[in-house]
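Input record, target 12 of the design panel.
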């Protein structure tokens, strides 16, 4: 925890009265860090964001120990109502399969949802398994054991990954299911996207899943994925946008919407939004408004930062919908809207 806090201070600044607090998903941590650094330089207001996983973020916002929680698994409308919460999407990105194989370059390896499901289920245990070799003629695949690396903590990244695999493969859906934490048949755990990235880098023959920014930042090789239209696609800003292009946020109760396994030849099949959770009844108007101002500023000024890290910046129509929901749902102690 001390190391985590120290790393956060690099971009949030020394704790002060002018500091917001948030906790949760590691999926959007790189872009929140970038936005926070720029926002502090512009306004003097820092953000202390604890990158502890979506499960931890949900627990902390329910306990009212932070100003906002963050989760890549949206809460269903009935749970939001029960806890007095509202949620809104902040950014869109993709979860990617990553591996550690000498001589195989990033983006060279092709994998299908069926093959990935069977790796997670322990049915495919070697990199030279016929199912992988047949997809990758000409690629030198060794007779090396596959070490599966998965998340050890409650994780929205795991939710996106298992939701995608469950939609694409009935055996995986039946055996593992979906959620922020599941019972993996095989593999070793890593805490956070950071922990999975470190494990994959460390272990020859490792296979795991991380948010794309972590693969890029750590120079970990990623694989292509076969999507719902049967096309092998690379992860990118464009393929994430393609998956999100038909998202109907206006008709999604409580903004509950999943972007996995979408149709479209260019769509990345493991795309997801990261959500912010706040209490509808804010204990302090100024603090609640300050959180909204941070995201409003970031959406207005942070598009280039998002693109540099291969996240999809929210469309203006979704930003406006978020702000309309803020105005309607978020109230201060006087029961007046905190957003005007």
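The sequence produced for target 12 reads:
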């Amino acid at each position: 925890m001390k190391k985590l806090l120290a790393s956060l201070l690099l971009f949030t600044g020394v704790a002060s009265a002018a500091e917001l607090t948030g906790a949760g998903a590691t999926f959007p941590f790189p872009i929140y860090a970038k936005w926070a650094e720029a926002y502090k330089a512009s306004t003097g207001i820092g953000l202390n964001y604890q990158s502890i996983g979506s499960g931890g973020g949900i627990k902390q916002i329910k306990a009212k120990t932070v100003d906002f929680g963050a989760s890549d698994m949206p809460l269903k409308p009935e749970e939001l109502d029960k806890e007095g919460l509202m949620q809104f999407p902040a950014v869109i990105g993709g979860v990617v399969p990553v591996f550690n194989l000498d001589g195989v370059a990033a983006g060279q390896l092709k994998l299908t949802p069926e093959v990935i499901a069977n790796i997670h289920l322990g049915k495919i245990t070697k990199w030279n398994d016929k199912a992988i070799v047949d997809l990758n003629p000409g690629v030198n695949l060794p007779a090396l054991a596959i070490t599966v690396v998965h998340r050890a903590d409650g994780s929205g990244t795991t939710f996106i990954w298992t939701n995608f695999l469950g939609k694409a493969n009935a055996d995986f859906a039946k055996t593992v299911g979906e959620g922020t934490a599941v019972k993996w048949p095989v593999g070793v755990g890593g805490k956070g996207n950071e922990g999975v990235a470190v494990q994959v880098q460390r272990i020859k023959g490792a296979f795991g899943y991380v948010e794309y920014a972590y693969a890029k930042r750590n120079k970990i090789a990623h694989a292509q994925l076969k999507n719902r239209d049967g096309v092998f696609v690379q992860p990118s800003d464009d393929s994430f946008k393609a998956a999100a292009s038909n998202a109907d946020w206006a008709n999604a109760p409580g903004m509950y919407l999943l972007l996995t396994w979408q149709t479209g030849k260019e769509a990345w099949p493991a795309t997801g939004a990261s959500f912010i959770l706040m209490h509808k009844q804010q204990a302090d108007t100024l603090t609640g408004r300050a959180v909204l101002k941070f995201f409003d500023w970031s959406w207005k000024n942070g598009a280039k930062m998002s693109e540099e890290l291969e996240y999809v910046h929210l469309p203006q129509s979704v930003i406006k919908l978020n702000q309309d929901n803020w105005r309607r749902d978020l109230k201060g102690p006087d029961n007046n809207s905190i957003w005007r």
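The radius of gyration is 20 Å.
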